[in-house]
Amino acid sequence: MIEQLEHLERDGVEAVAATTDLDELRARESELLGKKSQLTTLKSGLGRLEPDERRDAGARLNECRRQIEAAVSARRSELEAEARLERLEAERLDLTEVIDGPRLGHLHLVTQAHDQLEDTFVGMGFTVAEGPEIETEWYNFGALNFPPGHPARAMYDTLYVDYGDPESTLLRTHTSPVQMRVMEQNEPPIYVVCPGRVFRSDTPDASHMPVFHQIEGLVVDRGITMADLAGTLDEFTAAYFGRDIHTRLRPSYFPFTEPSAEFDITCVICEGEGCRTCGRTGWIELGGCGMVHPNVLRNGGIDPEIYTGFAFGFGTDRLSLMRYGISDLRDMFSNDIRFLRQF
Ligand code: PHE
Description:
It is built from eleven helices and ten strands. It is an alpha+beta fold and 343 residues long. The site of phenylalanine has 12 residues, from β9 and β10.
């Protein structure tokens, strides 16, 4: 019997070590140690032995069981570690983008455009100011000479913020409120541009986005006239687009300027010949402008008897569209790296 047990132990330990997965190990374990195992059969045979023999065989039997149990538990740890490794390997997420070698990022198209615009205006003697994107009704409308209920408010599809009294807080619909903030905080002479993000409740399409960008210009000084406005816009377009691009003014209306105008620039695509982009007119509408209304100067704490000023504002996303021949405004904001990488 002792000999049988020795065989059993050796074969058992070997069989356990040879298992290749946890299922197989479980099967082997019950074969070797379970109710129907040879070991169990031998144990029930102990009773038929002489007492001395029984003691030795009993001890040997227990030893054999212990050895096999130890082998099973060692093999189990090994197989479990292997399984865990395999699982980790299978579940690993590759968070790196597949790119052909290292590549430097760059500023977004909108940021690049604003940097260039600011550079151009700074070169002309302007400074740069910014204001908040969430504004009060006063700065966005009231101070800019839109009385409550004035129909011109309807020109702006305003997005109101649920804060304070109804319609008292809003997402600025233009950069003109920054004019007011600048006037409040500075004495003339003022030569400032205010770039920034503005918001209108528009459905996105190829030429509209509910979030877009503008740059505002404000000049307040002694003896400023409409000719200074026209000259500044012309000088700016030449500096930004080149000497072949000119501006023209068309009469218009804004509550905060009087007189007011829309300003157009020579179509950048056809240079005035007439093409699809400019609707065959040779001109492209860029923004609004005018002489700062005396009420607005007063609201900003400036005496309109001493000072006059002009202001202008235009959308900057459109400029990038023209400059790079992009056909859909939405492409600029969908953050598709394949699109953005081109600029
Ligand atoms: N704020 C006006 C708009 O967004 C543009 C403008 C700016 C007009 C300054 C006149 C003077 O429509």
